Amino acid sequence: MEVRDLRALLAVVRCGSFTVAARQLGFTQSAVSQQVASLEAELGQLLVERRPVRPTAAGRRLAEHAAQVLLRLDVASSELARFRQRPGAVKVALSPLASPQLLAVALRSVRSQSPDLKVSVKSVVATEAINLLASGAVDAALVDGITGPSEPLHLSGTGLLTSRWVAQAPLVVALQRGHPLAARPEISLEVLADAPWLVAPALLEGGATRRHQGASWKEPVLYEGADLGTLLKLVGAGLGAALLPDWAVEGDDSVTGAPLSGARLVHRTELLTLRTDGAGQNPVIEAVLALSRRV
Amino acid sequence: MEVRDLRALLAVVRCGSFTVAARQLGFTQSAVSQQVASLEAELGQLLVERRPVRPTAAGRRLAEHAAQVLLRLDVASSELARFRQRPGAVKVALSPLASPQLLAVALRSVRSQSPDLKVSVKSVVATEAINLLASGAVDAALVDGITGPSEPLHLSGTGLLTSRWVAQAPLVVALQRGHPLAARPEISLEVLADAPWLVAPALLEGGATRRHQGASWKEPVLYEGADLGTLLKLVGAGLGAALLPDWAVEGDDSVTGAPLSGARLVHRTELLTLRTDGAGQNPVIEAVLALSRRV
DNA sequence: CGTGATTACGGTTGACGTAATCATA
DNA sequence: TATGATTACGTCAACCGTAATCACG
């Protein structure tokens, strides 16, 4: 089981083609074919069907393992690179609803203390943050999501990274102002079962909510963007209800937020970093943590 | 980053010697030296100090990653091997206090339904079970431990394996019969802070208890064996108190179990298996799960 | 037939082992 | 000085690319 072969398998499974996988990897089609064949020989079974190129059950499973192995190798090499050189610049990834206030205040305090430090912030979808950390493109990531009050956010690559809880906010059901349900002091998800529903996976991963809503729920309207203002306008226009952290609905007059009852869910943002194990910590991380402790 | 090199690094770190690492791996000393050197060149930093051979901070961290990567590769190859051949025999690992009753009943029912199936059971320390599963030496493992009522057992290799909750029992404080504290209806851990304490890591991993007992606790007496009878005799002889599942103290007349209060902890056993994703399930696993659902 | 995967084959690379060298307890 | 890691170097395996072949749409 060579790393190279696993990388080839993963690329082939993802691309659905030896040719384009080879292009991606910088090999010839022939080489990739041999690499996959070598895996198949070693394991004694077919991993991808050819013409059309489609993974077998075994191949699909091995590809999952391969993805995790390669991710960990990336994380390892990023971590080790960080052992070498102390950071002169700090890059932070930020998912759309990840308490930007917190980061803003932290950055201000960092700027005042060490003005020569280069700081850059990059906005990303939550699930992308792990890859950025793994590849070393960012030093830390503030990501957010919906979970139970004492559950961690479960992101795919967790365990490799350290995640620290940084902020937590109650969830509200965002409704068009004047909506009949908005009068209630609290709303349970069951009440909304038949209401139209807006889902914005790029803005806020609602993994936990999927589990809470039964099969009886309507197919939600999908908003593929990551812009909060647009989503609020859609809600305000009566297209549907959305689940958001309470502070997110403050800005828009056409939308009201009704507290959620029943479903024990919260909005949380966590700070993800590579495990650097002491030794020369990142000033931005320190500042964010100091703030979150005070809040 | 080659798998071979990572394996070499890990062996060197574990053995504290290039020579014996090489013997373990079936290489010459020279080869291992070159493999580690190759890693060091690639990462641009020293991973192990020589004379004496000791990992640097970076090396230690990389070795941790390496261990996880190699474990996952083992799991992958075991899983894939299982895709090939349907099992004619079933091997189960069992940690010392992992509800043996459950397995016994399950095995009886399996024997009656398919008498031609070879079944073997192997007793192991809980932490060893993962390696056995990964190497393919066993098909399933019943492991137990102490955690919170809704927390999973956190074992190092989890995430690679599927773990299913199979049984749960209240924890009791095992005390010498006639012990002054035994008269109480319930005992909190705080009350026992100054009492002598018996810890048996091979018998029952008390990971969670470590967190619950403050620094003020006495250094516990260590019992290195994995034999419940012996531990109970030690308790009965007044050597100290021990934390055990309630059914474990039934057998011995010199010991009583007092229910635990305050600390929200339980004893749980979980069934660990490779992810086989449907397709030809293991009859023993099915039987154990069927039983646990009934209980 | 044409696109795309496999197989055949040669060149080059690089990994391991032997043996000599070096360093440290 | 002896044990044990590194370095030098030759050999051999294997990996990749080119090119021919094969198979499926």
Largest interface by Cβ-Cβ < 8 Å: A-B, 28 and 28 residues
Quaternary arrangement of the chains shown? homodimer
Low-confidence runs of chain A: none
The N- and C-terminal alpha carbons of chain A lie at a distance of: 49 Å
Spell the H/E element sequence of chain A: HHHEEHEHEHEEEEHEHEEEH
Number of helices of chain A: 9
What is the structural class of chain A? alpha/beta
Described by strand count, sense and barrel closure, the largest sheet of chain A is:
8 strands, mixed
- Helix fraction of chain A, binned, reads 25-40%
Mean pLDDT figure of chain A: 81
CATH topology of the largest domain in chain A: D-Maltodextrin-Binding Protein, domain 2
Q: What is the CATH homologous superfamily assignment of the largest domain in chain A?
A: Periplasmic binding protein-like II
**Domains of chain A (count):** 3
How big is the Rg of chain A?
22 Å
Protein architecture, described:
The structure is a homodimer of 295-residue chains. Chain A is an alpha/beta fold and 295 residues long. Chain A folds into three domains: 3-83, Winged helix-like DNA-binding domain superfamily/Winged helix DNA-binding domain (Arc Repressor Mutant, subunit A); 86-165 and 268-292, Periplasmic binding protein-like II (D-Maltodextrin-Binding Protein, domain 2, 3-Layer(aba) Sandwich); 167-265, Periplasmic binding protein-like II (D-Maltodextrin-Binding Protein, domain 2, 3-Layer(aba) Sandwich). Chain A has nine helices and twelve strands. Chain A has helices spanning 3-15, 18-25, 29-43, 57-84, 100-113, 126-135, 207-212, 228-236, 283-294, and strands at residues 48-49, 54-55, 89-94, 118-123, 140-147, 162-176, 187-188, 198-199, 221-222, 242-245, 255-261, 266-273. In chain A, a hairpin with a 4-residue loop joins β1 (48-49) and β2. In chain A, α1 (3-15) crosses α2 (18-25), α1 (3-15) crosses α3 and α2 packs across α3 (29-43). Chain A is globular and about 65 Å long. The model of chain A has no long low-confidence stretch (mean pLDDT 81). At the A-B interface, α4 of A face α4 of B. Chain A binds a DNA duplex (25 and 25 nucleotides) through α3.
